[in-house]
Amino acid sequence: MRIEPGGNTTATSPRILVLSHMYPNPTRPVNGIFVHELVKVLSRDCSIVVVSPIPAFPLLDRTAKYKGTGAIPRRMVMDGISIYYPRFFFIPKFLKFTDWIFYFVFVLPQIIGLRKDFDLIYSHWGYPDGLAAWLFARLLGKKVALHVHGNESICFFERSIRKILVKWFLRRIDCIIAVSSDLKTKMVRYYGVNEESVSVILNGIDTEIFSPLPQELARKRLGLPQNGKIVLTVARLSAEKRIDLLLEAFSKIAERRGNEVSLYVVGDGPERRKLQELSSVKSLDKKVTFVGAVPHEIVPVWLSAADVFCLSSDWEGCPVSIIEAMGCKLPVVSTRVGAVPDLVHEGICGLLVPPGRPDKLADALVDALCRSWDHEAIGELGRTYTWEKTARKVMDKLAG
To answer: Is residue 371 domain-shared with residue 277, that is, in the same domain?
Structure first.
């Protein structure tokens, strides 16, 4: 299978089934949006169908985490791509090493029904999606590839049965794409994966969406004050993102800079209430705003309104938010994790600090707010990471 020069679909172009529970749906439109952005570009060159299994358990969609999942349609078309949402039995919190069994059994009829429409299964999450994808491929005589987006995908920080399962099947997949050198090193060194089977391909952005607006106009659209400095973070409010560390660092900045600087937190997640309580405890209610989740197309407006973007994570894969910020000419202050050192040219596009050090993060944010940045250079570098470039490299790997 191959792609003809110029990117046109040919009789030898691979027909791909994308398998991932991390994929946008009507209830969670930004869930795995980076996967959809890549798939959109890949679909220009080959036939693609997406299967995004939805967990199901009695009354599960009444819980905060899974609210509304019961209303997700079984099939829909998004940007011309057919997406199927089969259900699989899922036990919340317990017996997670059994997830792959229910996933495989419940999703198998959907895969069999589509077997004539694809030659290759391309999974975008390690467990349970990747393990099930490998089994589907073995059963149906198809090729299989796995795209590893982060540490959680391969259960890296766990001591669990499912981590053992991940180690076992990763050694049996010939085509693995990692979004950072860090992830590749971990799979090779700690999981025993063949180094030649893993390719590192960084993420990208849609430069038509992530282009900057004048700051004055962006702030006016969002109803923000024109005066003062703004620090912005865009992230899922989960433990590994360490927004608590950012709040601690920001409290130090507030002591130094008073009302001159504000922090806006865009995103939602399980840590939101705890973080809001922490903000109140630190008397930051008037300086920190929790915006919540916003539509994908509104994120560039927030980036254009800010003065510095901050990512305070303990670990990452290849954070698209960093590239989006740079694409909007915004300097970055981030922890030195995952692919961040590959993306951010320190001193040119931003400043990097060790994870878990709020004192260093505070110093770097103050430094970044005071510096005169070459915003054109930042934007130029950010726009070199595009989904088109990523897709070409992915297609070369899948068609190889």
So the answer is: yes
